[in-house]
Model the fold of this input.
Amino acid sequence: ACASPPPRPPLPPCAPGTAGVPLSFELRSPDGREAFLQGSVHFAREAEAALDPRAQRALAEADVLVGELDMEALSPVEGAMLLFELGRLPEGQRLQDVIAPETWKLLQERADETGTELEPFETLEPWVAAVMSLGPSLVEAGFTPEEGVELQVYASERPQQTRGLETLAQQFALFDNLPLDAQEQMLLDALRPTSESAIELE
Done:
């Protein structure tokens, strides 16, 4: 019979503010199989979300990479088409008709600041406006997706086999099924001043 592999020593803890945060966890089954669970943020400042060397080693030795989404299967064009297909308001309705005047004014002000045309938003639900507004706000505050954990992982030495826990359609459907007041709150959160967005991520 084959002997079980000797147990590895426990990983030292990751202290807040050090490399390795978001936290990582190493999981081991009784038969010796292992998995490495890496916390993630989509946007980050340079070097603030750098992968811990232990995570890089685990990634290089892994057989399969499982993410929130399978980044290998994502198509920006298909994603945009899906966003506009799911997020379109019923015929005859406009965004400014389903949100408070104060929220619409905030969206107009934000559009003026970023040079964004509002016309494409007018036939879309609030959650779409929120998704489309959040990225520019974070980039203005110094956060980029390139420094986020997902893109770092896919740019690292990693297994070729990849899977996603969910699809982009499933994520968008979750937002699309929210009541309009919850969607408007999403939009308000996305329209907060960039300094507030930065403080929350920090």
Observations:
- The chain is about 45% helix and 10% strand.
